[in-house]
Design brief:
Fumarylacetoacetase_C_sf, mainly beta, 4 helices, 232 residues, Fumarylacetoacetate hydrolase, domain 2, metal-binding, 34% strand
Length: 232
Amino acid sequence: MTNYVFTPAPVISVPVVGTGSQFPVHRIYCVGQNYAEHAQEMGSSGREPPFFFMKPADALVLCPPGQTTPLPYPSLTSNLHHEVELVVAIGTGGKNIPVDQALQHVFGYAVGLDMTRRDLQAALKKQGRPWCIAKGFDHGAPIGPITPAQAVPGIHAAKIDLSVNRSARQHGQTSQLICSVAETIAQLSAAWELQPGDLIFTGTPAGVGAVVRGDRLQAGIEGLTAINLQVV
């Protein structure tokens, strides 16, 4: 028996729809500016290739179906933004995965939010510094349960939307991704050896905006379990 100097943290996991199983999380990869209109609203032309950043696995906030999950407002910001995203759950790892084989590595899909401390991100961008603190904070990655891939064959042309206090903020189609799910997996696997348990937040459509304490968010993707949160 290993004698740890303190009790290890429990395994971070996400429930799988229709089963009693949990998906153990390894890493969280995120794709930046993967919808052209969102790239434009962030000041880019919309023609630049998407890029990658990461969040810690324990930034996940699990959102059970049919419940409103509390989302703590983070410190050091006065401009917290929502970004609804299709999340890809990797079931089979690999390196240098070809595009035409990439979807074979997918276990399932979920609705996620890439919460962002936008004021910190903007300041760090101007200074040319990394903006991990703007993305990788506690409670910065809400997620719903994972639906197995075979149950959502239409996921690559699905509606994606988010509302705040029942007012529509974001809407689009997953078919509008600049880099498709398969292309994203191929690109990521050229930089890292993907592992079972990896999650990929694939990017957000246009319409990102600020939320404040008390706001209620509902995020959904056609065919997946929607998530409901309240900023506290």
